[in-house]
Amino acid sequence: MPNTERLEGLERAERLDRVERGPMMTGGTPLRSLDEDELLARILPGFPVSDDLVVAPGDDAAVLRTTGRVIATTDTVVLGRDWLDAWSSGADIGHKVVAQNLADVAAMGGRPTGVLVTLVADPELSLEWVLDHVRGLSEACLEAGVAVLGGDLSSAPAGVVMVSVTALGRLDGEPVLRSGARPGDVLAVHGTLGLADAGLRLLRADAVERLPVAVERQRRPQPPLAAGPEAAAAGATAMLDLSDGLLRDGGRLAHASHVVVDLDPGALAGDVDALTGALGAEVALDCVLAGGEEHSLLATFPAGSVTDGWRVIGSVRAPAEGEADGIVVAGRAVAHTGWDHFRNG
Amino acid sequence: MPNTERLEGLERAERLDRVERGPMMTGGTPLRSLDEDELLARILPGFPVSDDLVVAPGDDAAVLRTTGRVIATTDTVVLGRDWLDAWSSGADIGHKVVAQNLADVAAMGGRPTGVLVTLVADPELSLEWVLDHVRGLSEACLEAGVAVLGGDLSSAPAGVVMVSVTALGRLDGEPVLRSGARPGDVLAVHGTLGLADAGLRLLRADAVERLPVAVERQRRPQPPLAAGPEAAAAGATAMLDLSDGLLRDGGRLAHASHVVVDLDPGALAGDVDALTGALGAEVALDCVLAGGEEHSLLATFPAGSVTDGWRVIGSVRAPAEGEADGIVVAGRAVAHTGWDHFRNG
């Protein structure tokens, strides 16, 4: 199972990181050599603002102009659990934690507007890592037209670095839930499948040259943010972002909607082929079906309503008598698993 | 300096906690024995909802009905840095992290509407602690009419427990900034002064019986949430919540507004007297002037506009020729300091 392998790789390296305090904690200027005001003075000017930001960071709270409904979501990454110093730069992590939060806003049919960012770190963490991180985070926000609304800084025990982001968004129409898929709908995806997991496997195998684009996607996911509101406007009945793999997330959509989602393997052949040269056919299929952190969008549409940029990869039907809701591949049940923080971690 | 003493007490115990994994990590059911879905099934039903919650936790993101401007703020607490297992229960910490976030919303003149909560924890942390924490957190939200909009769970290295909260609020009028105080205004406070710091000192001295109300305030701050919008409606010119002490926070308000804030020691005599029996006059004065974590509200009003529940404790004037902006006591400059995460931590 890919997620178990991932875990083992991370767990092993995480222990090393904790004991050895990798390059992000040994080179450059440690955070403890600055006071909080000095640190903020280095960080805050890099944060993007927006026209909707009525009160920018620096007061008790920020104030953001918005429409009548606000979308809110939060996602956290932890050194050694979600990334390794050796594999991702500070900028990569900034980009990634923003992207995965914004993907959740898009998956409701919304447009992201702002983020709040919290860094909890070993005071030995280098200022250079933090500034690089802020750069990546700000770039990802700028690309999406998102402002940084605020944040918090706190120190943590030796070896701990954690970044928590909360994203806000605006919703102009109705939210697209996971639970709205109906029998007769088609299942469609916007974006790649399996690339980020393939990149993780290549990093583990020290073979990044076999498919650099996959490694880049693992480091910097590219959620198709505009596709979320476009799908909502086109009448998507259910939607989510692929964070834990097609089988697991598709299963969640099926379960929430009380339907059976049937994946068409033929429609996934191109995704598998794209990874086969680097990883072999079996692993490539695993990546496409179960690979996490892709952050493409998965949605169901009434047949005939699928809009530009989405490709149909399956169908939706009612469960047969006695059949459970869930995901199947070409009509056949599959085992699926995924990342679980406390049990695996 | 109170904050240095606080730090030393916490640092010492924090090291013990990390090595020994206190009761929150040794008794009961460890989190690692549940999978994430089982854990969420135990947590989510306890979270309060509200009529404005259009999409509750469980989808990619929550959706909250709001007015045209949303207030957002975030604040994080870390075991060993911000609390000790021996001194605060899970429920206390839940209450406290919510209260300190909601205080920031109130300090803008807003009404809190929702929070997002992230728990990053050692998988040895006990489920019982987490459920107690959720109880305290939910009670604090319910009292304030606030919904839990969502959250995240992640595992962390041994001994680490961290809770990060983002609070949202609605703003019906104009935000009250730190920077609006004008010469001729009066300075007023709503709520107690020094009680939370007194409680911390009594916990450190193992003398909680000397003033239980102070210890209770340290464990569970009581920000006067309604007073924020009331002050805004009454014409408050500047406002913030007292998280780092009267001198430091009052100094911030003065600096942001380019004014001199002059505290009237006579107006603080009652606050000092209330703590003198338990701590002696000198320490009591220290608590009142520099004690953190009180989360009372500090504001400036045009003379004659001070509204119910606020008491005047000083005045605002323009800096004299060559004088810096800042805070003074009875016209005389004072040294002030406070908590600094990376340098002290």
UniProtKB/TrEMBL annotation, chains A, B:
Binding residues for ATP: G151, D152, R178, S243
Binding site for Mg(2+) 5: D244
Matches recorded under InterPro entries: PurM-like_C_sf (IPR036676), PurM-like_N (IPR016188), PurM-like_N_sf (IPR036921), ThiL-like (IPR006283)
Stored Pfam families: AIRS
Membrane-spanning intervals of the chain: none
Domain PurM-like N-terminal: from-to ranges: 58-170
Residue positions binding Mg(2+) 3: D60, D104, D241
SUPFAM superfamilies for the chain: PurM C-terminal domain-like (SSF56042), PurM N-terminal domain-like (SSF55326)
Record key words, sorted: ATP-binding, Kinase, Magnesium, Metal-binding, Nucleotide-binding, Thiamine biosynthesis, Transferase
Pathway per the UniProt entry: Cofactor biosynthesis; thiamine diphosphate biosynthesis; thiamine diphosphate from thiamine phosphate: step 1/1
Residue sites binding Mg(2+) 4 per the record: D60, T73, D104
CDD domains tied to this protein: ThiL
Enzyme Commission number(s): 2.7.4.16
Family: Belongs to the thiamine-monophosphate kinase family.
PANTHER family from the UniProt entry: THIAMINE-MONOPHOSPHATE KINASE
NCBIfam families according to UniProt: thiL
HAMAP family: TMP_kinase
UniProt-recorded name of the protein: Thiamine-monophosphate kinase
Protein source organism: Terrabacter carboxydivorans
Gene: thiL
